[in-house]
Amino acid sequence: MKKILIVGGGMGGTILANNLARRLTNELKTGKVRITMLSASEKHMYQPGLLYLAVGKITPDELYRDQASLLEPGIEFFVDPVEEFKLDNNQVKTKSGKTFDYDYMAIATGSRMFPEGIPGMVEGAETFYTEDTALKMFKRLQSFEGGKVVITVGVPHKCPMAPLEITFMLHDYFKDRGLADKVQLHYTYPIGRVHSLENVAKWAAPEMDKLGIKYDTFFNIKEVDAKNKILRSEEGVDLKYDLLITIPSHKGMEVVEKNGLGQNGWIPTNRTKLNMEGRDNVFILGDTTNIPISKAGSTAHFEADTLGENLAAIVKMGMPVREYDGKVFCFIECGKDRATYAMFDYKNPPDPKAPTKAVHWFKMAYNKLYWISARGLL
Q1: Is 349 within a domain?
Q2: Distance between CA 73 and CA 96 in Å, rounded?
Q3: Which one of 295, 317, 339 terminates a domain?
Q4: Among the three residues 250, 282, 302, which one is the final residue of a domain in this structure?
Q5: Which among 154, 167, 131 has a CA at the least distance from the CA of 59?
Q6: Range of the domain at 134
Q7: Beta strand 104-107 with 282-284: parallel, antiparallel or unpaired?
Q8: What single string gives the DSSP state of each residue in 101-128?
Q9: How far is CA 243 from the centre of its chain?
């Protein structure tokens, strides 16, 4: 029997498990293969929805489904997070004390925001990367009556378009509340343009100009003076604010760091084969990799498709059949029922088009279709 172990029940792990279960239906029935998923939660969260929660567009209950309900029959699912990776023995040890063996393992543990890495950020800034912080941000927005709103960005971070999306969505939010003439939005970014992807930056800066959104580049966050409401950069720039919104830098999950699998929780990963460097039977998905591409749900999705096909082929034929090409697809909300998208891979840069209502409504539809996508059916 070949044992396939999937660590992590987010988008990457879920799509991979379902992909494999469909490709290996006969092998599962005959006992030639076992697919096991270990997760830290019985719930699956639609993480892109947190952006909408932060501006009051959805409610918390819309973010969740039972993880077990998203999995194909035949997948063994346990809410029992891994605490120790014993790679030399092809084993993991879980929180409950159980040991799970594997022939092939995929690690898809995701990432976490790390605002505590910047002095004063936890106390002085709002963010939306967890349910609690998104709700807190919405309550703060509801009570805000005007002033300077600074949106600041740390790197690396999850969801590459989030800084632009929240900026445009805040513009709409304050306009809808009748506060457009009382609020000044001011955006900062760490490098010499408003986004890391050059073509996205070339598209976004004129959009900001049209809306009167100010921006500073080469702004790397040093500290937040929460008492005096001042944001300071490593470059020596001080920005006063009345409300500070942050896209904080992210790290990999603590279990990865504690087990010494990768610096800052990012596991060294072959960018086409998706195996952990130095390990032929351990694969890495989504945010957990150190591949220098966008940490986005679509990245995990396309990687999971590739790995699912390859692992099934390895079981059936003894070798993989394809390589991951770096494909990423990201919607970009642009405000007032308009959106565009960026699609790119290792060889082809993104080329965002003019925003349209059609793309916006397609994204709104995807918020509902996500659960079908997580099952690997879209």
Answers
A1: no
A2: 24
A3: 317
A4: 250
A5: 131
A6: 114-250
A7: parallel
A8: E-SEEEE---EEE-GGGSTTHHHH-B--
A9: 24
Interatomic CA distance for residues 125 and 217, integer angstroms: 19
Whether the predicted pLDDT of 246 surpasses 80: yes
Q: Are 154 and 248 in contact (CB under 8 A)?
A: yes
Phi-psi region of 326 (alpha: psi -120 to 50; beta: other; left: phi over 0): left
What is the widest separation between alpha-carbon atoms in the chain? Answer: 67
How many structural domains is the chain composed of? 2
* Together in a domain, 51 and 26: yes
Q: Output the DSSP codes for 251-312.
A: EE-HHHHHTTSSGGGPBPB-TTT-BBTT-SSEEE-GGGB--SS---HHHHHHHHHHHHHHHH
Reading the block at residue 118, the tokens are 């910047």
Locate 193 and state its tokens.
Answer: 């343009």
Ramachandran area for residue 20 (φ above 0: left; ψ -120 to 50: alpha; else beta): alpha
Are 303 and 261 in the same domain?
Answer: yes
Q: Tell me if 204 sits within 8 A of 168, measured CB to CB.
A: no
User: What pLDDT digit, counting tens, does each position of 163-216 carry?
Assistant: 999 999 999 999 999 999 999 999 999 999 999 999 999 999 999 999 999 999
Are residues 269 and 149 in contact, defined by beta-carbon separation less than 8 angstroms?
no
CA angle at 250 for the pair 242 and 221, rounded to the nearest 5°: 40
Summarised one tens digit per residue, pLDDT across range 223-245 is 999 999 999 999 999 999 999 99
pTM over 0.85: yes
Q: Confirm whether 241 is domain-assigned.
A: yes
The 3-state DSSP class for residue 4 equals strand
